[in-house]
Each structure stands twice: as C-alpha cells, then as structure tokens.
Write a structure and sequence with these properties.
This protein has 897 residues and is α+β, with helices and mostly antiparallel strands. It contains 17 helices and 32 strands. Helices cover 18% and strands 19% of the residues.
Amino acid sequence: PLCPQYKGQANLHVFEDWCGSSIAQLRKNLHFPLYPHTRTTVKKLAVAPKWKNYGLRIFGFLHPYRDGDFQFSVSSDDNSEFWLSSDESPLNARLLVYVGQLGTEWTAPGEFNKFRSQSSKSVHLKSAWRYMCNGIHEKWSEQTCHCETQWRPFLPGLKYEVIDSAYISLYADESSLKMNSVDHIPQTLASHSRLPDHIQPQDLEGGSSTAHHGADMLKPDPRDNFFNTPMIHPSRLENVLPACLYSPTYVVKDFPIARYQGLQFVYLSFVYPNDFTRLTHMERENKCFYRESPIYLEKFGFYKYMKMDEQRKETFPSQRLAKGSYKRKHEAERQEGAEGASQRSASARHGRRGPGGRSLVSPYQLWPNPPAREGRSSPHNGSLSAQNGSTQRSASRATGPKQPQLSRSEGEHSPSPPADLPSRIKAPTTFSHLPPVTLPRSNSTDNPLQDQVRVTSYIRTSEIIESQQQLDPDPNPAELEQDLNRSNPDTDPEPELEEGDLSDYSYEEVEARPGWAEDSINWQRTFSVNPMDFELLRSDWNDLRCNVSGNLQLAESEVVDVLAQYMEKLNERNGGIYTLLRIINIEKRRDSARGNRYLVELELMERGRSVVRLSEYIYLLLHRSRQGEVSPPASAPTAAASSLSTPPLTPSNKTPSRPGTTPGSTAYAKPLLCQPVMLQWRKDVMVHFVVPVKNQARWVQQFISDMENLHQKTKDDNFSIIIVDFESEDMDVEEALRESSVPRYEYLRREGNFERSAGLQIGVDTIEDSHSIVFLCDLHIHFPLNILESIRKHCVEGRLAFAPIVMRLGCGSSPLEPNGYWEVNGFGLFGIYKSDFDKIGGMNTEEFKDRWGGEDWELLDRVLQNGLEVERLRLRNFFHYYHSKRGMWNSQNKKTP
C-alpha cells in the first residue's frame, strides 16, 4: 500500500563532478547509478539547479488521473531521457522520449517540438495503477539549466502540462538510509548496471557497442600479470654474483635541503621494454615532450628536422632560368598583374598598387602556395619557391636568410619564437638551419580554420624566406608596413561592396569568373629526414614541466649486454638449467660516477619443464681510481665496457655534479656485475594502506570494493587497510569494513575537523610490525592488480622508498578512457617501511594541523635528508579519479536562492 507521506515527491539522485553532456557519458560515471553525490527529493518533474558538470536521476511512481491514452514529452539542456514501465516493476521500463544522444543537442525551456524524439506515441494508462518512471538528465555547461517532463491526453489541440506533485510518489524513503545502502535503488536498462547477462547495453537503442579507446597504454602488457608466475627458488640465486657495497653518489644524506627542494633531488629510472606510459593520445594538446617552445612548435613544427628535396628541372621549367634572369621575369609578371588588375574591381585586395605604380607585397605572397579564399583571386602562381632553389639554399646556409621587415602591429599578433629556445634538440648536420621567422597574419576574418592550417603547415615554412627574397630582395619598409596593416583584421575595415560583388556571407551560386587563379598544390614534394630518437635527449632529472612524458626508455643494446653476463653467471652457478623466455621488465637507476643499479625481471624456463620468474636487484659497479690519478688506458674494452662504462670527465662532456659526487674521479673501462649488499626486496612483506576519510561515502565504499577485488584477483593475504574516520555521518564505515572480504582492516575513529597529516600518523601508529611497509594513500584511486608487488619491489628497508606517479584523469574520463596527465609534482602516494617512517619523524602534524597541501613535499625533504632513495616511476593503470573539493572535508555550504 502507498504510504501517504510518499505522495507528492519523487526521488532525486545527483552525480556531481562529471563532465559530459550525453546520457551515455553519464553511464560511464564510476558511481552511477548506485552512489550519487546527493540524495534528495523533488516535488515535480521539472528542475533547474543552476549548476554545471552533473547528472540527475529522477525516479518514482506515476499516478494517472484518468483512464486513457497519454502522450509524453521532454525538454532539457543538455541531453535527457524519460523511461516508463508498463506496471510498477522497474524491469519493464522502456524508453519513451529523449533529447539527443551525442551530447551536442539541447532545447530551450518549454520547447517540445525541436526534435522528433521529444514526443512519444500514445501510451495507455489506468488511473487505478501506478507506473514506475525514471528520468535521466546530463548537464555540462552552466548556461540554461533545466529538465522537464510533460504529459497530455492523446487528443489534438491539448497543451502539455508539467507532471507535478499531484501525480507522483516516492519509490523509496531514503531519509533514514546511509549513503552506502544501495539495495533499494532500482536497476533497469536505463542504469546499465547489474543486469542479466542476456541484456546488453546496446539493446537500449539497437546500436553497436561503444568503441574502445585507442591509447597504447591500455593495451595488455606482461608486467600487468607477471605476479601470477611462480617465483624462482631463492637458493638458486645464492652466490650467482659477487657481493659488493651499494653506495650511490646521488644520496643526499646530511646534505642541506631548503624547504620543498627535495623535488630537485629526485631522479627517474629507465625502463625496458617500452611500457607505453607516454600519453601519446594527449599530445595534440601538449607537445612538451619535444622540449621546444610551444609557440615555436605551433608556428614551425618540426621543419628543422626535414630537408626538402630539390625539384626536378624537367618538372618546373622556371628553374631553367639563368641566375640573373629572375628580375626580368618578375617584371613581366608584374606587368601582366597590372593588366589583370584593371579588369577587376578597384576594391579587390590583391590588386592594390602603391605609389609610382609599384606592386605592393601582399601577406599571401609571402607563402609559396597561399591559402585560398572564396570570392578573392590571387596573382601568385605557386611557382616562386621553386626558382633558384639550390642557389638560395646554399646562400642561406652560408650567410643565413634575410629577416622580413614586419610592422609593429603585425609582430604583436604573430610573435617570433624566443631567442633562448632550448638548444638540446639539434638538427642533423645535413639539414639547412633556418632561423625563426615572424609570420604575417592572414587577412581573412571569416575563416579561422584557414589561419590554423596556415600556421601549422610546417612543410611550407622552410621556403618562406626564399619566396620573400625572390619577390623583392629589398622591399620598401613603409610600403610593406602599410600593406601588412591593411591585412591586419584589427585595423582593416571590411571594404564596401560595389555593384556586381558578392558578400562573403552570400548563399548565391555563381559561376567561376574567367581568369581566377587557383592555388597549386605540389603533391610530389618530397623530403629527407634522419632517424631521430627523442628519448635519448631526455634526462633522469625529475621533469616537472612536462606531464605527458612516460617513463624513460632504456637502450636495448645495454639490456642485452647486461643480461648476457647475468644469464651466463646464473647458468654457471646452476648447471645450465635456465633458458631465457622473455624480458619482462628492466629498471635502471643511473649513477655515472660509481655504478648503475638494475631491477631485473625475467621469465625463465627451468629444466625445460616449468616457467618461473626472476626479480632481483643487481649492480654494475664501475671501479674507481683514487682522486687525482689517471685511469689506465683500455686497450681492449669488452662489450659491456663499451656500452656501459662512463668516460672521464672532460670539458666537452661535463655534467652538473650531484650531491656527494667526488670531483675529478674517473672510471675503468671494465665494470663489475655484482650483487648489492642490503638491497633485496621481500616478496611476502605486509603492506598497510592508510587512508584518512570524512563524509566520503561513495569513495570509501569504492575503495573497499577495490581492495576486495584486489584480494580476489591476486589471492594475496599480506595486506591490510587502515581507515581513520573523522566522524563521518553519511555511512557506517566500520560496518562496511566488517561486511567486506578484505583480509585485514583497522578502523579508527577520531573527533574534530579533518586533518590529513594527523590521520595518516594515527594510522601508522597502530602498526606494530616496524618491518612492514606503510603506503600513505588517497581515496580516489584506481589500483592496478600488480600494485602490491610494485610497492614491495621498490621499498627496501633502510634504502628505498617509493613514490609512484599517478595519472590524474580529466573530468568525464575513466580508466577505460584515460584522458588526463601524470601527476609529476605529487608525492602524496608514498610507500616506505615503518622503521624508516619512524626514523624520519613521521608526518608533520603541528605545521599541517589546520590545512593540507604541501605535507607530502615536506615529508619528501626529510626522507631524502635521512639517506633514503626515492624511486619515482609511472605505473600503468594507476589512476586518480577526477573530483572537485566541493562538499569535502571541512567545507560549509553557502545558502543560495
């Protein structure tokens, strides 16, 4: 029976922090439809919250006021759907009306006839029944914010009316339920969650399934599931390599570090093979990987790495002209242009003539193939760049091309690349080096896409200067400035149309005028280029400027050399029973002064029967001479020495010395492959995830579910979660932990405002085993299945701490569509042994008592000063979900009208 208090309302669930304007995008939300940001009620099916980046789900029962046929309609900005069941069961719901499917469709308030899909066919309803209804709305921008559902009897001429409180009732009373209580939430085709196997999401509209994201980083990698392979027996690795001391020069123990300077003393590791952590799918927005000025790349691209091939003389007869005949031909062309200009309108821009009958240089003439514009003719025939090509190129290499003289106003709109561009990327010596040129702006004001194509056309850029010199080797600056000012959209008014001319916005179809010159395109233009490995130009310094770069790549030749020596030693020790099947992962920490550290992970065949994995640290020790002595000459260096040894420091190859490096030291030619003492990682050590929380029910429940899934997939019992709860009111965290299947947990409740530093410290203090690993964690994380082993491998007591780089997802992105950036500055996700954590003093709870942000950098300073290395690697499938800070921690809502 319907409770009286249920009538007059419908359930409203709000999903905030989600960008997108289509319902399909909303269904990709991690929390949709079970864990909304807000649960409340609404009194009619017409809401306008005046907000952005959210999704709504309104559901309840519909009570018809009469028997008969009804028609429904929906209006919204942006997309929306209205579902109605044939009875009170949500499983029988079907889609009646909707606004858009792509996310670009919208309607004005009360506009019900814009799309065919807005109005439904007739639906027969009975007044004695109640019908389950479900409305979904997605909103991105903060413009008109509305969504309304109306109905009317299916009779011509009747008006639609909003379904108000007299005809709706709640589906469930949620006022006394916690946010993690979700069993009452209806699951239908509209929600696409927990459906029977035979019902697929594409059944909604009869279309195909969603295409997969094309990012390389989403493709399977052997590292992802390598933990499932049985480990090689430890006895097989004893005495394989001689023992040696491990004391890298970059450790900054007792070295004075100013506040937050630890970021500058963190070095990156090299990996092999390529793990495709480089965000290649984001480089259309950010090209910082190539270490060029963004302005430079936008204007010139990669032209300095390209050498345009000389045009064949039989293809371009103009190239057969003698060296001194160009001016005569140019004068003839100008005379022909003057005759053609007299036949055209006096207001045509490309027919202007300056004082004394001299033809002015148009900005379009500075291009070998000027961009086309409707309704305008161009006297340039596209062949100027080909004339005297070899002569001009040789002259430009010898003396450098002549800079164009541009007006001041033009230079402001098209700035030249700065003089201090990074010089680390060198053009091949065979390429002709052209200095930066300030490009003139197009005089087109009605086609911005044309300007973008013109600016980014790096193939044409290499011939701009040649064309300028050929057009006029000594142009008149005053005339050139006058013409460029006319081409500037900011200073050039649109000329009045004369009789017979057409406006740029005219839709009339006209025949092409005789004599129009069309732009020629040289499809046969070819070029030469040398192979360029931009990875070799990167440094192991922690690059805080570029967040799309992946892990540093290790040269294959170096890997082969090291592994050949190691496999020889391994089989020599074990009677030749191992065969190398695959190189899964090699990580190198470079120390050019003393030696390189490697983490070697191999898939081996043992005795031809079983497959085992090997994961060990080894050290390539570079023997050092005493200070001031000269290294003995290497008469016959080995392959390992030739690829791995470090040459003596000379004025040409000196690099900034790191803290602790002894000046004047050199290395022998033959390094020693050895086993570093006190640098073995423990395969079964306990890992504690410590997380402070406050009123984040949907994220806490997701974190617990992820930990359950991690335990189920890996069968690893050696981890626990410690949640420090600052008086959460939206869920019973302890009960959720108790009902979960995580192997171990600890629930700690603390009163007062949220304090991240204090919460982490409280959680660590409860750990009794000082020889276990503490992982300072966040709630909004998606963990890969190999996270436990990654933490264990990169945490060594007294030696290594681990700060994995997480990928921050953008608003509307998900682990299956990972659009975002690497968090190269953040160290909040941090793994360290508890003994080392206690040794450095733990979290700074006094200074960061009433605030958060910066406590991770301050902790990093003290970790480094105590002699620990901090391993910094980008982890595959390690994501930080997008979320705003609205409603989190200690924030208070401000009443709005």
